[in-house]
Amino acid sequence: MSRNFMLLLQYDGTDFDGWQKQGNTDNTIQGKLEQVLSRLEGRKVEVHGAGRTDAGVHAEEQTANVRLQADITAGQLKEYLNRYLPESILVLDVQRAEERFHSRLNAAGKIYTYRLDMADKCSVFQRKYRYALGQELDAEAMRRAAAYLEGTHDFRSFCANRHMKKSTVRTIEQIDIRVTGTRMEIMVHGDGFLYHMVRILVGTLIEVGQGKRLPETMSEVIRARDRQAAGFTAPAGGLFLTKVLYREEDCRG
Amino acid sequence: MSRNFMLLLQYDGTDFDGWQKQGNTDNTIQGKLEQVLSRLEGRKVEVHGAGRTDAGVHAEEQTANVRLQADITAGQLKEYLNRYLPESILVLDVQRAEERFHSRLNAAGKIYTYRLDMADKCSVFQRKYRYALGQELDAEAMRRAAAYLEGTHDFRSFCANRHMKKSTVRTIEQIDIRVTGTRMEIMVHGDGFLYHMVRILVGTLIEVGQGKRLPETMSEVIRARDRQAAGFTAPAGGLFLTKVLYREEDCRG
Question: At B253, is the pLDDT very low, low, confident or very high (cuts 50, 70, 90)?
């Protein structure tokens, strides 16, 4: 009999090739977790993550799940993982989950946070966690542009995968832009995101904040359904997966 | 004719073998600065730093000075350094200094800040910048102990160099302990510090906060003039050189 566990993970994406496993020369977060858990189980196990974060992208709270046969409690599993994982990955919590719970398929939404600094140079202690833009942005214009992006749209213009065959329709519940001194935080809450979608959304909003695009042109960008119509891809280091959301009945075991 | 420049530097000490140059296989902050400046000058130059921070110790604001023959303004020098230095070293400011100004010999005082987290595990994004103690501390007892350490004393008990022949008398102006949630900041302001002195002071205060030592025993620890009498050496990663202080007349060029 196997047990399904839900893992809440925090990681510094700087030194990893992203979440998703890549063959044998593996320096991914999924790969590190599977290595440690396969040793525990004495067989190959598969870890499912809710968000496939890119190389350099961080997670404040990623959700994953894994089915194990080992006779181990959630607390023991948390302790075991934190003992053997690299220090750039931290298991915040482990809970027993229902047998049918799948971290990605059951995810009802995700919140990403993008952090940047408008100052000339940001602190060296923030260099891997905040995009040093070094330029003043018009936050009000960005908020007006963001309002056009909220809602259900075909976000093909914001998808870096040219050969995406599945639906590119997604719903953005909210984009919240906060400024503290020279620092800006862009929180994006949506039901799901396409490849590079958050970074392209942020890049496009930055161009609005720089005065290179008008807020009202966002409708045209969406309508174009063409990656060329949107802005640049903001650097990975400023991006954090902040939280994965579930419906209450889907996640507890 | 050479010009003396004062440099204000910020660096992430994680990946360096400390401030001070070490022979040829050099991965020190001083070494990186001298490499870049020697290329600019076309001759070997020497950079003087106010504080010789250890491996893994950070600087929020270190002061250094260098004499250059190159026909370059302070602003140009700052730009040049930031272009060629590794991204873990940031030049915050460059100013012309008086010919006789020496960043270390003229320093009137230094402020160091030690950061720790009393929570079980601190955030992965803080792991190189905050000591994850994972234990509640009695801040009030630590403040009472700190009061015994303030003032002018022979700090030989807090010196890791057993063969120190020069005076080990120093003055600590103030030790300030602040708690925010599970986070603690210990600021130490003194006229100068012995080898590992701040980290041993912090380790000793932590032991007081853990209830292993009574605040009043600090006088005995000082009197012992023996490293064995003091506490453990707190890990390097939590320590920051926060500011180097000068008398106004000593620093401007």
Answer: very low
pTM reported for the whole predicted model: 0.88
Which of the residues A15, A17, A26, A54 is marked catalytic? A54
Please name the residue ranges forming H helices in chain A.
Answer: 29-41, 74-84, 139-149, 197-209, 218-224, 248-251
What CATH number should be reported for the domain holding residue A182?
3.30.70.660
Q: Complex ipTM, two decimals?
A: 0.84
CB-based contact, A123 to chain B, within 8 Å: yes
Distance from CA of A170 to the nearest CA of B (A): 30
Best B61, B93, B124, B129 residue to mutate vs chain A (most A CBs within 10 Å): B124
Q: Which domain holds residue A154?
A: 109-243
Out of B12, B17, B26, B54, pick the active-site residue: B54
Is residue A54 annotated as part of the catalytic site, yes or no? Answer: yes
Last residue of a domain, one of B106, B123, B141: B106
Q: Is B239 found in the same domain as B184?
A: yes
Q: Which residues contact A63 (CB under 8 A, 6 or more apart)?
A: A6, A7, A8, A9, A49, A50, A103, A107, A244, A246
**Lowest mean per-residue pLDDT among A73-87, A197-211, B46-60, B113-127:** B113-127
Tens-place pLDDT, residues B70-103: 999 999 999 999 999 999 999 999 999 999 999 9
